[in-house]
Amino acid sequence: MITNFKYTSRKDKPEYVWRKYKEILTGRILDVGADECGLKKFLPEGTEYVGIGLSGSVDIKIDIEKGKLPYNENSFDCVLCLDVLEHIDNLHEVFDELCRVSKRHLIVSMPNSWRGFMNMLMNGYYERRKLPMKFYNLQVHPQKDRHKWFYSAREAEEFLIKRGGMNGMEVIQIDREFPPLRLKDKIYRAIFKIIAHKDVDIDSLWSGNIWALFRKAHHDNP
Q1: Tell me, what CATH number does 99's domain have?
Q2: What is the domain count for the chain?
Q3: CA-CA distances (angstroms) from residue 145 to 17, 43, 56, 87, 134?
């Protein structure tokens, strides 16, 4: 599943999701960490959409870090969790819950932490040089909106594939966003290939979000 539509903001992301995954966005849909429930307006008539989370204009306020999701196993045809897991401490348990309540499909996106670090090295501090990296800097006062995991794109893919398999979920598509490389990016990339340790995944320094589409392995899916 692919789309040529590109999103550059949180506002545009629901349309990207709809264009990319619309073939499976039918039946009962659970959107975990739904924020403003932006995907709802794109769904066809007859689709039952539920957006949950703590912030934004969600349908049901739920703290997904505390306890199991309040739904039975195989309750939803498709479950979405987009740029959420990196914000929570009990990432593994919540991911398992996503798999449990999914009847057919699960869509997960995760940012690439290494990309943020590389952006800082190449482009300077975030927000007019106030912060070294969005979500990861240490401030004097506690931050409400922050990431709690620092990982490469390769590590994210390995987690999604293996943890999904542990929960009976088969990855049927996994891809990374790659922004266009400017001349400066190409030069830095060539330099890092020479000086970086062989274990460093060079692609993880440039790639954006990781997207994974799962199918419940034991379910009779078309």
Answers
A1: 3.40.50.150
A2: 1
A3: 23, 29, 13, 8, 9
